[in-house]
Amino acid sequence: MSYRILRCSCYVKRALCIRLNTPKSKRNMFVHKKNNSNYKIASFFSLSISLFGFGLKDDETPEDKLTNTIKRAIMSINNQQYEKAEQILHLALRMAQDLQSRDGITYVYDVMANLALEREQYEKAEKLFSEVMKRLLEEGYQEDNLKVIHISLKLANIAHHLGKVEKSMLGFNWTLPKIEKRAESNPDDVEIKEIFGLAKYWFGQLLIKTNEYEKARLQLISAYECFIEIYGFKNTESITILNDLSVACAKLNRLSEAKSYILTAIRLAKVSDDYQQEAILQINLGLILLQEGLLNDAKLHCSQAWRLSKETKDYSAVRQAEICLNQIKIHEVKLEK
């Protein structure tokens, strides 16, 4: 019996980068779905501006032109105009090179890497983030610097997506103790809490892939608790964590917990009118109910998922709903015999 894994939430995206020099804002068995909220994607990129010291000024200096060009690229990314954003970023890179701005060049590489990650171009993202890391270390940043930890965390997760499980595991095992230490010494720092929760979340996903479900469950619970501490219970950004928690529990045959987590995720998806994610969650709920032997309930939720997927033209989810319904039919035939 298979489930699908929801793709990274805005929580994951927002915690990836260092913040802008403005007041801080809030920051396998499940289906991955992109979250296309412009606010969320904007946060993903704008958070990293202060990583290399860029600020906003009134006078139009060459440095300001560079910053504004990068902002134009981010706006294009917000509008999902990825090719246009790529072109603007190459222009920004040339501008930074003409200015001989080391920080500017590094920052453009960082945004390019994040764009590649957004587009799931993992090999390209890996190369770009590795270059950013190299440049930071050449500048004298230490391994326990938060900026270095950020990049290391991204690289560990990218390795997971590229199927480099051992490399990914090494990356997380290197990163987690460092961010845990920072979190213990800075308990009120929201940014560090975000990165800590992100690290736990991604590591939990990796552990699901390696079939270490109990370890994954504990990591995901830690991520969820961290997330709730920052944003409260009534938020729509914890859906993927709840979904993955449900997967881990289902694999451990903790079906009551699995169902509780998935139902909470469905309620949150309904609040945000995110019908695509709701359909995926309904499929996973149907599979859990099937595992419990509740065929009629399972059919109800998988059928609902099929209708929602049809309405949103999410044909991948339609196929998954049909697989769920076919599995139910197989079980019904067995019972008839």
Keywords for this entry:
73% helix, Tetratricopeptide repeat protein 19 homolog, mitochondrial isoform X1, two-stranded parallel sheet, TPR-like_helical_dom_sf, mitochondrion, 15 helices, TPR repeat, Serine Threonine Protein Phosphatase 5, Tetratricopeptide repeat, mainly alpha, 337 residues, repeat
List the helices and strands and how they pair.
Layout: E1 3-4, H1 10-14, E2 29-30, H2 38-46, H3 62-78, H4 82-98, H5 102-118, H6 122-138, H7 146-161, H8 165-185, H9 190-209, H10 213-231, H11 239-251, H12 255-271, H13 275-292, H14 295-312, H15 315-336
Helix pairs in contact: 2-3, 3-4, 3-5, 4-5, 5-6, 6-7, 7-8, 7-9, 8-9, 9-10, 9-11, 10-11, 11-12, 12-13, 13-14, 13-15, 14-15
Number of strands: 2
Q: What is the succession of H and E elements?
A: EHEHHHHHHHHHHHHHH
Specify the number of helices.
15
Distance between the termini: 21 Å
Computed structural class: mainly alpha
Broad shape: globular
Q: Could you give me the name of the CATH homologous superfamily of the domain at 63-141?
A: Tetratricopeptide repeat domain
Q: Give the helix level as a range of percent.
A: over 70%
Rg, Cα atoms, Å: 21 Å
Judging by the overall fold, what is the CATH architecture of the domain at 63-141?
Alpha Horseshoe
CATH topology of the domain at 63-141: Serine Threonine Protein Phosphatase 5, Tetratricopeptide repeat
Query: Within the largest sheet, what's the order of strands?
Result: 1-2
Uncertain stretches of 5 or more adjacent residues: 5-47, 49-53
Average of pLDDT: 84
The largest sheet, given as strand count, sense and whether it forms a barrel, is: 2 strands, parallel
* Proportion of residues in β-strands: under 5%
For the record, the CATH class of the domain at 63-141 is Mainly Alpha
